Amino acid sequence: MDKQWIVSSSPHIRTKEDTSYIMKQVILALMPATLAGLYYFRVQGLITILACVIGAVCSEWVYCKITKKKSTINDFSAVVTGLLLAFNVPAGLPIWMCVVGAIFSIIIVKMVFGGIGFNFLNPALAGRAFLLASFPVAMTTWLKPGANADATTVATPLSYMKLMGAEGMGSSADAVSKLHDAGISISSMFMGNIGGTVGETCSLLLIIGGVYLIYKGIISYVMPVTYICLVFVLTFIFGGFNAEFAVYQALAGGLLLGGFFMLTDYTTSPMTKKGQVIYAAIAAVIATCIRLFGGYPEGVSYSILFANCLVPLIDKYVHNRVFGEVRK
């Protein structure tokens, strides 16, 4: 019997993994940190998460209805955006601000440019930057973990370090001493019992979620390892070779959250490993400069957003060699 050959266009190797599967894996990886946020910030944390997630999903659904496009909420990307936005804002942020941030993230940053796969900025981080520029006081008011809604606010570890170490008022040793005086230890930063946004406080659970995504093959280790390790090295060097100061910097703020869950966004990151290293290194340098020499204690969100803008340029000049290519 004659054999029948089937000729088809690429891709020839297919997988059952789709956008919905990937987003579900990201949500699963974020669950430990979500539970920690609920444990430390209680009802205020729950309200913030629900407001951001529901606001993001409803924004995408309404946009698709108005523009008469097929609804894309079933791919769970809006849920991920809403959850990451909630992770990047303080617990107790007014509900309407959470909703406004979600609308900006989904409609302005994502859907207007064509939806998932076409946005050039990370939607959640762009939403955070928009909220911080619009409502700076509300976005820098941190609830004390485990407290009720009427409890006093606290400063974040980065705020203490900025006060003592980054503005010429003292050395990195002074910054570490200030953290010790405030009762902020490295172990407390690992466990999350510190002031900060809903999802950035518990370093241990963020690392576990990031390692899970790497294990499942959802993200590559290249970008988070380059980003986090380079920030550690740079803060160690510019912090007077103070290892404890560098560890505090690595665990504080949104470095782990941004490195594992937002720097690695498929749409806004380079396609090649070499490009990913360059991209992560640029973001790390910017984050370190803002933290140590800028007027704002945190630089993760702006560093990633700036690096996002450079991705088309990186992809243009950094690419893999084509098999069979002959050098001129």
Automatic annotation (TrEMBL):
Q: Which cofactor does it need?
A: FMN
The record's annotation in Pfam families points to: NQR2_RnfD_RnfE
Keyword list (alphabetical) reads: Cell membrane, Electron transport, Flavoprotein, FMN, Membrane, Phosphoprotein, Translocase, Transmembrane, Transmembrane helix, Transport
UniProt keyword Phosphoprotein present: yes
GO CC, one annotated term: plasma membrane
How is this protein situated with respect to the membrane? Multi-pass membrane protein
Q: In which compartments does the protein localize?
A: Cell membrane
Family per record:
Belongs to the NqrB/RnfD family.
Sum up the protein's function in the record's words: Part of a membrane-bound complex that couples electron transfer with translocation of ions across the membrane.
Subunit composition?
A: The complex is composed of six subunits: RnfA, RnfB, RnfC, RnfD, RnfE and RnfG.
Name the chain's protein.
Ion-translocating oxidoreductase complex subunit D
Q: Where are the transmembrane segments?
A: 21-40, 46-64, 71-87, 93-113, 125-143, 194-214, 221-239, 245-264, 276-294
Organism source for this protein?
Answer: Peptostreptococcus stomatis DSM 17678
Q: Which residues carry this modification: FMN phosphoryl threonine?
A: 156
According to the UniProt entry, what is the EC number of this protein?
7.-.-.-
Q: Name one GO biological process term.
A: electron transport chain
